Amino acid sequence: MKLIDSTPRKDGYRMPGEYELHEACWMLWPQRPDVWRFGGKPAQYAFAEVAKAISRFEPVIVGVNGDQYENACNMLPDCVRVVEISNNDSWMRDCGPTFVKNDRGDVRGVDWRFNAWGGLEYGAYFPWDKDAQVCRKVCEIAGKDMYKLPDFVLEGGSIHSDGEGTALVTEECLLHPGRNPHLNKAQIEEKLKEYLNVEKVIWLKRGIYLDETNGHVDNICCFARPGEVLLAWTDDESDPQYEISAECLALLESETDAKGRPIKVHKLHVPRPVLITREEEAGVDVKAGSIPRVEGERLAASYVNFYFANGGIVMPLFGDPGDEPALAKMREIFPDREVVGVYAREIILGGGNIHCITQQQPKGL
Ligand code: KQY
C-alpha cells in the first residue's frame, strides 16, 4: 500500500455511484456494551443477517477485534471472510475508505480524518484511535493505494456520489462545529470536489430528525441512479420530520445535477417513530462520554439507509406497518434488482443502519 501525495481529481479518479459494480463489501463486528445492548449479542445476530444477505450478491469481508475473532467466525456464514481489524466500534461506512476509481479500473482509497462524529466535545465516544486506523488497514488488506487527509474530518455516511459529477451532503453535518470549524462552506466544498472528483455539490439543509451523526445524508437521501434520488418522507405534518423532508424536497426540485438534469425525487415514507424501550435502555452500559440510551427516545429510523449490492438491495425493516409498502416501493423503483429486507431494530439502536455498517469496494480491473 502506497500513500499517494496528490488528489483523486488530479489523478483522474472519481467516487463511483454505489449502484455501480462492486468487488466486495466491507463491514466491522459490533461488541461495545455502551452502544450495543447485552454486550452486542443481539446486534451480532443482526450484523450476521446483513452479511448473509449481502453475500448472496457479492463477497463480504468482516473486520473484527481479536477477542471476537472466534465468535465472529462461528456466527458468520463460511462464505463471509473474517479478518482481524482492531476497532472501537462497527461503522465501516464512516471509518472505512471512500473508494475512488479511474477509467482504467484502478481503485484507490481515501482516508478522511475520523473523530467519532464530532470529537471530544460532540462525538459519540472516546477514544476512537482504532477506528481512525481502519481505513488504512482495509486498504492494506485490499492491496489498494491511498490518499490521506489528516486535517479534514469526514465520514462516509455524510456523502453520496452519483458517479457522474454530483455529490449530495447536508449542511447540518458538514458545517457542524465538531468537524472542520476552521473551514467555511466553500472550502469544504472544494475538498469534496478535489477528493470525490465531482463538479457539483448539492447541499441539503438537514438530515433525519434526531440523527446522532448530525444529519448524515445517507439516512435521509440517496441517489437511486444518476438524475434520481430517494428521499425519506412523511405525510404527517405534525411530525418534526415533515418540515425537514419538505425543505429537502423543495431544494431538490429546484436543483439540477452536474450534467444539468433536473432531479427526480422518489419519496420513501419513514416508519412510525421507533422509540427505545425500557428493556433496551436497561441492556446498554452507561459510560461517560458515550451517548446514553434512554427509554422513550426516538431513533433515527429510515428506509433510505440501505445498501446497493451487485444485482440486489439490502434494506432495513423495523417490524412496522410501513415495511411492506417500503419494500414494494423499492421493488418498483429498482425492477432489475432483488430487494431483500433485514430486520434492523438492533442496528438502529446503535444509532445507524445497514448503509452505515457497510462500505462498498468498487469493482477493479
Ligand atoms: O449512522 C452512522 N453512520 C453511524 C452512527 C453511529 C453513531 C454512534 N453510536
Brief descriptors of the model:
365 residues, alpha/beta, four-stranded mixed sheet, three-stranded mixed sheet, 12 helices, binds 6-aminohexanamide, Agmatine_deiminase, EC 3.5.3.12, Putative agmatine deiminase
Your description of this structure?
- The chain is of the alpha/beta class and 365 residues long.
- The chain is built from 12 helices and 18 strands.
- The strands form 6 sheets. Strands 3-2-1-18 form a 4-stranded mixed beta sheet. It has a 3-stranded mixed beta sheet with strand order 4-5-6, sandwiched between helices. A 3-stranded mixed beta sheet has the order 7-8-9, with helices on both faces.
- The radius of gyration is 19 Å and the shape is globular.
- The model has no long low-confidence stretch (mean pLDDT 98).
- It comes from Candidatus Allofournierella merdipullorum.
- It holds the Pfam family PAD_porph.
| Major sheet summary line | 4 strands, mixed
Radius of gyration: 19 Å
Q: How would you write the strand order of the largest sheet?
A: 3-2-1-18
What low-confidence regions span 5 or more consecutive residues with pLDDT below 50?
A: none
- The geometry reads as globular
Strand content: 15-25%
Hetero groups bound?
6-aminohexanamide
Q: What's the average pLDDT?
A: 98
How helix-rich are the residues, as a percent range? 25-40%
Q: Termini distance?
A: 17 Å
- Secondary-structure element sequence? HEHEHEHEEHHEEEHHEEEHEEHEEEHEHE
Please give the number of β-strands.
Answer: 18
Count of alpha/pi helices = 12
Structural class: alpha/beta
